[in-house]
Amino acid sequence: MESALIGFVAMLLLVFLRMPIAFAMGLIGFLGFGLLLNFHSALAMVATVTYESGLNYSLSVVPLFILMGNFVTRAGLSEELYTASYAFLGHRRGGLAMATIVACGGFGAICGSSLATAATMAKVAMPSMRRFGYADTLAAGSIAAGGTLGILIPPSVIMVIYGLMTEQNIGKLFIAGILPGLVAIGCYLCAVIGTVWVNPEAGPPGERMAWPRPVPGAEGCLGRAGAVRRGDGRHLWRHLHADGSGRHRRRRRFPVRAVAPRPGLAGAD
């Protein structure tokens, strides 16, 4: 018992010294196993565990989820998720915090990691909330709370590991996590609403985004849905004439010429 506590404390010290958790746990496990038995067996155990873990097909989904999250981040989808959430909620009190939570839910449905979700959305949402004067407690709390959705909304790395350890159906675990994830998002939004109701200065409203709207009297844009202008009307889309199949066609006018009868054909009857 005492050796276990000493090993745990040593692992925490290595983590506080900024050693990666995986290497800290591996080093303490290797030293503890070597001191209890012998270091020859400890070396053999390290080789066996590393080989079996590296070739475990079931665990290969974990780095793939992380890789997918990196692809999404590099592609700029995290910013697009936050922008879409901001368009619906940003103009309300606490709207930026609520948009952050919704965007975290969307990003968690792609990545599956809470740490990656929180780190990504912190880079996207924190500058905007500071620019609008949000309280640091509300801003940091919304990012931290939204980050927990990464392991709840499928696909989830924790659900995969739990299913492998307990020999449960991972697909059913993913399905079971959808409703709790949506309930958690709703509860977080209610918490933000309650916070700004008690302290309105903690989450001032953001700018309202202008929605595209049709120009009165214009025709022929996007399948005859009307010409569209954005915001203050400075940007006007071009008028496109499309036929029923969705393909654009050109209207060309040809001059009408009188065709004279060919000699020898007249009176051939």
Offer a few descriptive terms:
269 residues; 3 strands; disordered C terminus
The biggest beta sheet is recorded as: 3 strands, antiparallel
**Strand line-up in the sheet with most strands:** 1-2-3
- In the predicted model, the low-confidence regions spanning at least 5 consecutive residues are 215-269
What is the total domain count?
3
What share of residues are in beta strands?
under 5%
Order of helices and strands: HHHHHHHHHHHEEE
DSSP strand tally: 3
C-alpha end-to-end distance: 120 Å
| SS summary, helix count | 11
Structure description:
The chain has eleven helices and three strands. The protein has 269 residues and is mainly α. The chain has three domains: 2-55, no CATH class; 63-202; 212-245, no CATH class. The chain has a three-stranded antiparallel beta sheet with strand order 1-2-3, with no helix packed on it. The longest helix has 21 residues, at 178-198.
